[in-house]
């Protein structure tokens, strides 16, 4: 009798809300078991409940991506529960709206620690398992601001853009280092309607609808669809790639 194939496992940081949650739900609908990690303990419980209600297998891990040792511990607990990690989606992130005159050293360190070091922490934690498995896909959520530096009206300014540009460098460097069995790619969302951007969408949504060739503000599902593609496409000949999901707002 043919051996039953185990369901693939995805870890999603920032999985309690927005793009991370939509990605977790999308991957569950494609047969994945998902471990969602987030600092927001209430939201993560609600997200896990919503995923389980659709029949999904879910682990919830309350975690601060800034902590190197916590990432190691969380990954060890996923391995203990499910024995494998097929996909890592790094979606945890924060904005930083201050300009150079107002920003403090503490503000700079925080956005770098969450957005860039957090991505490093989780890549570092999963890679030994992916190397052992000779299989793995890492998908980092960056931002179109990494290319543009943001616009004067953007929710975030230069420090956020710098952290997200760092994520692109990390993505490309790891893609070179981790082939042939592990792929590393990035997704750069434009303006997507989530709790992170709610105020901006209210203020600037109409302008984006007018300016973007696709004439609407993005939804978390728009990004999740691309995450699913990168997580599942077969055969796969893509690594180190950066995909913009911004309705064509920034066409380079
Ligand atoms: N919404 C947009 O327009 C947009 C555009 C470009 C890029 N992004 C990026 O997409 C990713 C997801 O953003 P979103 O819009 O879904 O926002 P969101 O606020 O809905 O989700 C982000 C999640 O990250 C979690 N998080 C924050 N700090 C954390 C920490 N230290 N440790 C663990 N979890 C933490 C939050 O609790 C939240 O659940 C972020 O990296 C963001 O920078 C979003």
Concise overview:
By secondary structure, the protein is α/β, with parallel strands linked by helices.
Please specify the SSE layout and strand pairing.
Blueprint: E1 9-13, H1 18-29, E2 33-38, H2 41-53, E3 58-62, H3 68-82, E4 87-90, H4 105-133, E5 136-141, H5 145-148, H6 158-178, E6 182-189, H7 198-211, H8 220-232, E7 242-245
Parallel strand pairs: 1-2, 1-4, 2-3, 4-5, 5-6, 6-7
Helix pairs in contact: 1-8, 3-4, 4-6
General description of the model:
With 252 residues, this protein is of the alpha/beta class. It has one domain: NAD(P)-binding Rossmann-like Domain (Rossmann fold), CATH 3.40.50.720. The protein has helices at residues 18-29, 41-53, 68-82, 105-133, 145-148, 158-178, 198-211, 220-232, and strands at 9-13, 33-38, 58-62, 87-90, 136-141, 182-189, 242-245. Strands 3-2-1-4-5-6-7 form a 7-stranded parallel β-sheet, with helices on both faces. The N and C termini lie far apart (52 Å). The chain binds nicotinamide-adenine-dinucleotide. The site of nicotinamide-adenine-dinucleotide has 28 residues, from helix 1.
Keywords:
binds nicotinamide-adenine-dinucleotide, alpha/beta, 8 helices, globular, Rossmann fold, 252 residues
């Amino acid at each position: 009798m043919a051996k039953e194939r185990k369901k693939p496992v995805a870890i999603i940081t920032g999985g309690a809300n927005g793009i991370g949650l939509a990605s977790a739900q999308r991957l569950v609908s494609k047969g994945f078991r998902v471990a969602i990690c987030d600092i927001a303990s209430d939201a993560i419980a609600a997200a896990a409940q919503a995923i389980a209600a659709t029949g999904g297998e879910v682990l919830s891990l309350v975690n601060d991506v800034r902590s190197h040792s916590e990432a190691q511990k969380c990954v060890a607990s996923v391995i203990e529960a499910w024995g494998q990690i097929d996909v890592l989606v790094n979606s945890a992130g924060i904005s930083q709206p201050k300009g150079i005159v107002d920003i403090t050293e503490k503000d700079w360190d925080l956005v770098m620690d969450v957005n860039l070091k957090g991505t490093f922490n989780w890549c570092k934690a999963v890679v030994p398992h992916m190397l052992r498995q000779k299989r793995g896909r890492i998908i980092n959520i960056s931002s179109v601001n990494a290319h543009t530096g943001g616009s004067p009206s953007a929710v975030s300014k230069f420090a956020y853009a710098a952290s997200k540009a760092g994520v692109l460098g990390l993505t490309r460097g790891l893609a070179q280092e981790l082939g042939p069995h592990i792929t590393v790619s990035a997704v750069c969302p434009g303006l997507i309607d989530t709790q992170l951007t709610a105020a901006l969408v209210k203020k600037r949504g109409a302008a984006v609808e007018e300016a973007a060739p696709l004439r609407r503000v993005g939804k978390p599902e728009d990004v999740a669809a691309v995450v699913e593609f990168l997580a599942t496409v077969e055969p796969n000949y893509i690594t180190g790639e950066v995909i913009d999901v911004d309705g064509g707002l920034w066409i380079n």
